[in-house]
Amino acid sequence: MIGKTSTAAEILDHLRSLRSEEALAGMARYAIVTDTALGISNTELRKIARTTGKDHARALALWQTNVREARLFALYTLEPKKLTGEEARRLAEDFNSWEIVDGAADIFIAAGLTPLIDVFAADEREFVRRTAFAMIASGAMHLKKEPDATLIGWLPLIERHADDPRNFVRKAVNWALRNVGKRSRACHAPALALAEKLAGSADKTERWVGKDAVRELTDEKTLARIKA
């Protein structure tokens, strides 16, 4: 049995004992990188993580193993208050999967590392750039005490990269725009205005980002929730 005193090596051994070839085959259908995967579901990983608790140093050690499940486990057991900007940037050097990026984005937001959004957006690597917009999407939901002006202030960055045609970037840009627009009444109007501008663009990626965002931001359920 593993628990709060288990080492990174012991946890990795336990994860390897749960390897599932059948689950691995299914993961590929969701564009999950399986080169180093063991085939353990996120639900199961979270369950195990509740048993071990958080341990920042151990989590960073698990990250270094390069095993998909160990890296997700690391994200679940990192301590956001201890995560530094330099550590976050080192983690980003290894990003190669949307699920890792999106999990890390939540941690980076919880750690208060919003200054890295501009840094990651400026990076040409697909998954590092995705991190910036996954952070905005996460921040729109979780930064409850942050002024709406902060979120609105990220709209120019969204516009700047709305023409990036790479699949995992454009989807994150769209996600960020939609989440900002759904945050509040104050955020809705400028986000919708940007979405409509992009929807009329001559660039096909910008059009896709804009039209999809307009569709959600003008949906009756979205409008009703914002006005509630």
Summarize the main sheet.
none
Number of strands: 0
Radius of gyration: 19 Å
Average of the residue pLDDT scores: 96
Question: Percent range for helical residues?
Answer: 55-70%
User: Whole-Å distance between the termini?
Assistant: 48 Å
Taking pLDDT < 50 over at least 5 consecutive residues as the criterion, the unreliable ranges are none
Q: What does the overall shape look like? A: elongated
The number of distinct helices, counting runs of at least 4 residues, comes to: 15
Order of H and E elements: HHHHHHHHHHHHHHH
Give me the secondary-structure category: mainly alpha
Share of β-strand residues: under 5%
Description:
- The chain has 228 residues and is an all-alpha fold.
- It is 68% helix and 0% strand.
- The protein has 15 helices and no strands.
- The protein has helices spanning 8-17, 21-27, 42-52, 56-63, 68-77, 85-92, 98-110, 116-122, 126-142, 148-152, 155-160, 167-183, 185-199, 204-217, 220-227.
- Helix 5 (68-77) runs parallel beside helix 7 (98-110), helix 8 runs antiparallel to helix 9 (126-142) and helix 12 (167-183) packs parallel to helix 14 (204-217).
- The protein is elongated, with a radius of gyration of 19 Å.
